């Protein structure tokens, strides 16, 4: 674990809105730097929505920096290769030149972060919904209470009320495809011949656009991402239309049969959000609140966690908080901007389907080490 020294005796207070991956990371990192941190989560409990998640070197280094890497590694998995298929034929097998990457369930990652937040003494308030903020350092809650902080962190996701209350200039655009994400038992022994420990990104452009991202999370759990255009009523149907998925991916039958039994499955679309700036006065935005991106490069949470972690380090610097926030944005934003752009292009053109999509440029964010602020992995 990286030890971080307190630079001032005065205890500063941070109010963090949102208990997702970005908010928890910001809260832990600030707390480690000596801040008093209150985290406001609108839901009745801290929990992750979704199914599985990929983290790369950048996100794993954040976990190391905030002291929960070992817990995450205990029940997560690095496949031998990232395989891409087109119409059931392998078009590429990528191993990223040894760059660390890992797949896990979202619940596992979230639990590790929530445990660590409690351990370091973050005050967690559930049923505490933020409805707005003021640049002077105030967070307004749905209860009518207004809490003050030396720093307010808006980590309240893509629909951020903190962001919207401050009138940031923003561009937002959606993708044409969406995804059903589920965790099912691995069923590795029932799948027949194949390298079923690999990630397999199975694309079909014809007769319909349908893709399954097959991602083993550990020995027991498999993350399935079933992608189809939102204009396709059968591909986007939940619970799963078993027939339409079996037609294209018959070899996954045991997994798909279990997937179709999941009643509360969701079909989610995704969007890109781009702001003119990530901070206003004492308020900083991290994660999807500030820079939601398409999942093509599996970097939304990775970038969110990096930005939350570096925010906590950079507020220790600068003549004023406002100056420190501007310097923080200048330091890490180019990586997020590039990753957002590449992810949106891939989503719009479905170019990951051609294989070998993880070029050195596409792996820019993944190769970044947020502790030493260098690209610590060779291209
Ligand atoms: C299909 C898909 C696949 C993806 N795969 C990956 C991947 O493999 N790797 C990766 O790095 N990223 C991935 N991402 C992106 C990643 O899921 C997000 O970037 C990440 O979850 C954002 O985390 P966050 O904490 O910023 O926001 P959120 O996860 O949205 O968390 C926001 C939190 O704030 C709470 N909240 C909301 N409003 C309020 C409020 N007003 N007051 C208080 N609390 C509030 C919510 O309940 C929630 O707990 C994927 C995204 C999609 C859509």
From TrEMBL:
Keywords: Monooxygenase, Oxidoreductase. GO terms for molecular function: 3-hydroxybenzoate 6-monooxygenase activity; FAD binding. Its EC number is 1.14.13.24. Coiled coil: none annotated. The keyword Transcription regulation does not apply. InterPro entries: FAD-bd, FAD-dep_Monooxygenase_BioMet, FAD/NAD-bd_sf. Residues 11-313 form the FAD-binding domain. It is an enzyme of class 1 (oxidoreductase). This is 3-hydroxybenzoate 6-hydroxylase 1. It comes from Martelella mediterranea DSM 17316. The gene is xlnD_1.
């Amino acid at each position: 674990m990286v030890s971080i020294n307190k630079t001032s005796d005065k205890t500063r207070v941070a109010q963090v809105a949102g208990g997702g991956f970005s908010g928890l990371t910001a809260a832990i990192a600030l707390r480690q730097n000596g801040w008093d941190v209150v985290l406001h989560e609108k839901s009745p409990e801290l929990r992750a929505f979704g199914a599985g998640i990929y983290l790369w070197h950048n996100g794993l280094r954040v976990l190391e920096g905030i002291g929960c890497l070992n817990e995450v590694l205990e029940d997560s998995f690095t496949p031998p290769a990232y395989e891409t298929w087109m119409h059931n034929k392998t078009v590429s097998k990528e191993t990223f030149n040894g760059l660390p990457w890992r797949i896990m369930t979202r619940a596992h990652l979230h639990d590790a972060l929530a445990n660590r937040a409690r351990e370091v003494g973050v005050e967690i308030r559930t049923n505490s919904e933020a409805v707005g903020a003021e640049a002077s350092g105030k967070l307004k809650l749905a209860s009518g209470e207004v809490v003050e902080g030396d720093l307010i962190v808006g980590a309240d996701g893509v629909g951020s009320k903190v962001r919207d209350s401050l009138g940031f200039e923003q561009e937002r655009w959606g993708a044409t495809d969406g995804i059903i994400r589920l965790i099912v038992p691995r069923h590795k022994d029932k799948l027949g011949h194949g390298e079923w420990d690999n990630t397999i990104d199975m694309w079909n452009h014809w007769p319909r656009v349908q893709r399954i991202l097959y991602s083993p999370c550990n020995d027991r759990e498999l993350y399935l991402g079933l992608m189809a255009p939102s204009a396709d009523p059968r591909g986007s149907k939940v619970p799963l239309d078993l027939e339409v998925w079996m037609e294209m991916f018959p070899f996954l039958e045991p997994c798909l049969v279990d997937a179709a039994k999941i009643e509360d499955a969701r079909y989610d679309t995704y969007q890109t959000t781009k702001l003119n700036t990530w901070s206003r006065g004492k308020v900083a935005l991290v994660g999807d609140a500030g820079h939601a991106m398409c999942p093509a490069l599996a970097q939304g949470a990775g970038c969110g966690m990096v930005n939350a972690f570096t925010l906590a380090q950079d507020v220790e610097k600068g003549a004023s908080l406002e100056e420190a926030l501007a310097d923080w944005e200048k330091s890490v934003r180019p990586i997020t901007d590039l990753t957002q752009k590449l992810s949106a292009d891939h989503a719009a053109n479905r170019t990951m389907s051609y294989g070998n999509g993880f070029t050195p440029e596409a792996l820019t964010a993944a190769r970044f080490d947020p502790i030493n602020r260098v690209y610590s992995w060779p291209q």
